[in-house]
Amino acid sequence: MLLTISTTYQPATELGYLLHKNPARVQSFDLNFGQAHVFYPEATEQRCTAALLLDIDAVNLVRNKGNAMAMDQYVNDRPYVASSFLSVALADVFGTALNGRCKQRPELVVTPLPLQAQLAVVPCRDGEEWLRRLFEPLGYTVEVVQHPLDELHPEWGDSPYFTVTLSATCRLSELLTHLYVLIPVLDNAKHYWIGDDEVNKLLQRGQGWLEKHPERRRIAYNYLRHKHDLTQEALERLVIEAAQSDEEASEIEAVSEETSEAEAIETQSVPATEVLEEQAGSETGQEKSTKKRVNLHEQRLLAAFEVVKQSGARRVLDLGCGEGRLLKKLLQEKSFEHILGLDVSYQALELAQKRLHLARMSPRQRERITLAHGALTYRDKRLEGYDAAAVVEVIEHLDPSRLSAFERVLFEFAHPATVVITTPNAEYNVKYETLESGKFRHQDHRFEWTREQFQDWSRQIAERFGYQVQFSPVGPEDAEVGAPSQMGVFSRHESVA
Length: 497
Prior knowledge:
Its EC number is 2.1.1.386. Its cofactor is Mg(2+). The chain folds into two domains: 2-193, c-terminal autoproteolytic domain of nucleoporin nup98 (2-Layer Sandwich), CATH 3.30.1610; 295-492, Vaccinia Virus protein VP39 (Rossmann fold). It has helices at 15-19, 58-63, 84-93, 95-98, 106-109, 127-135, 172-187, 196-205, 216-223, 228-253, 261-268, 296-310, 325-332, 346-356, 363-366, 403-414, 451-465, and strands at 2-7, 27-31, 34-43, 48-56, 113-123, 141-148, 158-170, 275-281, 287-293, 315-319, 338-343, 369-373, 388-392, 418-424, 467-474, 485-492. The termini are far apart. The longest helix is centred in the middle third of the chain and has 26 residues, at 228-253. By secondary structure, it is of the alpha+beta class. The chain is elongated. 34% of the residues lie in helices and 24% in strands. Helix 16 links the parallel strand 13 (388-392) and strand 14. A seven-stranded antiparallel beta sheet has the order 2-3-4-1-5-7-6, covered by helices on one side.
């Protein structure tokens, strides 16, 4: 199997630095299914081409009974076509470039370069149209040559094999990432076991582009070898990560504290009554009043924090912790002995690490907090043994069909003594001038409940899992439509504790 990557960026030989492979010599690497060879057919300042050649040992694959996908026959197309073997080789041989790192030329890592990738033989039984539907939405110019079954017998028709050339001006890491994910999608026959780890790989490598891809559902389905449960999990987490990514975009750019479209909508209607008065004393003992505008999301966090603090909890969960705004408040409260923040978004957890300055935190303080990657619709024993849990503006991102799984994960299995949940109040949406009637505050909300709907759902949970529940408004309250957010505080019955 042969993959070539070319550039006309000048000097073109800088490609060797990005790939961490010297154009002046051939390099070989042992893989568990054969060998990979890297060489440069051309390397001038005007044009440079790197080639990755896989030499797959098909006979050994058949004999290796421990392989997740043993071959049924010794004669097969595995040594010749782009498949999951190539994805593994990309990660092993070009891993540093795939992850977007280069010490010698760090500026080139983030520079869009004129790149061309050619896959010598690609299996695609769905034809040229499917190839284009995969790569063209990512900005590639796609050239496709379909091969006949037999050149000596054209009447036999065309084969499902293509030579594909992709051209674009993009970062090298983007090109490698797209190939890493989409090659197995085309081949649809991964050579290793597919489990939960593959969902994590897909979301990690698909971050920033997969959630916007028009074929994301089929990409996930093919990548995960048609496993419906894993596909459903991946799509659910993708929706939540996409929403959080939108909400955190301005955090990344350091433009504004108010990160999401939803928050922008909510902020527009903040009345004067939301301006909080803070008293500060001077050296002479005179007091002066300073005004600070607190946005709605900050009010949610403060409300949840106060509930958790007043509960007397020592061990606290922040579920759907995002970039760590609530975690930061919880860490400042010394009565909390341990705090766990869980989120489905790698990007959010990375932002949380930066926001909390974990790298510079003292060892004693660092022991108080754990950041964990996971989903709220699957039982996670890491969540057990905590006194309180905060779930701030999270449930509306879950599909209604998955709420029952979330309920069991939190209230049955984790079973903290106190749970605080906030969610938008749909009745208040009429107060947002720019929000069209019938639309949600954020495009990735799966639902938005009225106060009655939220309270009915909460009371059913309380009755089923042995809790009592009380409700409070969050934000400025209107006499007719209530507050913009609503909060339910669940307290476990003493008899159940």
